[in-house]
Amino acid sequence: MAASESVNPVELLREQLEGASPDVLQAMVKAFAQALMSAEADAMCGAGYGQRSGERVNSRNGYRHREWDTRAGTIDLAIPKLRQGSYFPDWLLTHRRRAEQALVSVVATSYLLGVSTRRVEKLVEQLGIRQLSKSQVSEMAAHLDAQVEAFRNRPLDSGHYTFVWMDALTMKVREHGRTVNVHALIAVGVNADGQREVLGLDVASDEDGAGWLAFLRSLTARGLSGVRLVISDAHAGLVQAIGAALPGAAWQRCRTHYLRNLLTKVPKSAQPWIATLVRTIFDQPDADAVRAQFDRVVTTIEAKFPAAAQHLDAARDDLLAFTGFPREIWRQIWSNNPQERLNKEIRRRTDVVGIFPNRTAIIRLVGAVLAEQTDEWTEGRRYMGLELLAKARLIPVQPDQHDTDQPNPAPIAA
To answer: Which of 93, 259, 311, 409 is most open to solvent, judged by the fewest CB atoms within 10 Å of its CB?
Structure first.
């Protein structure tokens, strides 16, 4: 069926709304795409459709149909044909965003590997894709894998990365006929220009010291340097890995995650009171006031809950590492909260898949999301001012509190 040559978008929208059509967005996308192609074809012909003109250099010759996969679903487009030469809209060849393309590729790969077939069919339908051939999946996956590998292995040559946030997200993957948990290790840093940047991604079987050490050494091999503070939750083995791979870097334990751990040490009725007390530590105007308030809070809690007070006191150095840096950036470096939004975006994409067919699929999808996020950060405003970064780098290096040659300190209970 030929496309309509004259489209009134306002009238079309009114008709769709009056008819209570569930495909309003899809119909509008199709209508505007057809109108755009018609205008481009008219420009190539030198005259409008059906118009007589001495400037005409070509004419229409029917249509050919092409399915166009969009976020609104699969749309059947009627592409104008010309009697001389050919016409094809360039924007139909443009690749979708990397993360969306990766998501489609992972879901389709899962389908082809027979993973939860009925469930994956429903997921594909939710994406608005009717079908994908094996050749399409292979071509898409190869293109994406090359992009993600280039991103993961790029040199970290943007100068010093003063602050680095690290986190691990648990993913489910099928291996050897079983569904197992693996851990996606992610590092984000602030580069010399004050912009946030995803530094690396890897998948480890266990979230232990060996996995973190290998990950950190891969980052330093690519050029990671100048790290003064690493912010993270108390992941197993991470502190020792920091001492071995990033000498001179301090560790800031995420205050938000720690508070959740601390509250498990007191009755539920006392948790609001304990949480309010601990938060007062971080509301102080300078480092000396923070340390003094920390002492007062420990003393106050000890009167009623000595075990909780001991737990808090043992975490003192790790919770107060941020006080060694300028006051203006405390809020950005005393927790892992800046990375929570990134984690939510990753989860939003990975939850669609549920169980990944292999580790390559995890790296493909998560890597595409991280590459897109780095692009957005690069185009956005600075995360930290250059003057504040310079002040942070001038702070004298303290003796390495995580020196691996020294006896390991008593572990802090979760």
So the answer is: 93
Give the span between the Cα atoms of 13 and 19, in whole angstroms: 10
Contacts of 344 (CB under 8 A, 6+ apart): none
User: E strands within 176-325?
Assistant: 178-190, 196-204, 229-232, 250-253
Which position has the token pair 């082809």? Answer: 112
Provide the 3-class DSSP secondary structure of residue 67. Answer: strand
Contacts for 87-95: CB closer than 8 Å, 24+ residues apart: 87/37, 87/40, 87/41, 87/44, 89/36, 89/37, 89/40, 92/66, 92/68, 95/143
* 106-149 pLDDT, tens digit each: 665 654 454 444 555 565 665 555 555 555 555 556 667 788 89
**In this structure, are residues 156 and 146 in contact, taking their beta carbons and an 8 Å threshold?**
no
Q: Per the structure block, which two tokens stand in for 64?
A: 């050919």
Q: Which of 376, 403, 345, 41 is nearest to 196 (CA)?
A: 376
150 and 368 in contact (C-beta within 8 Å)? no
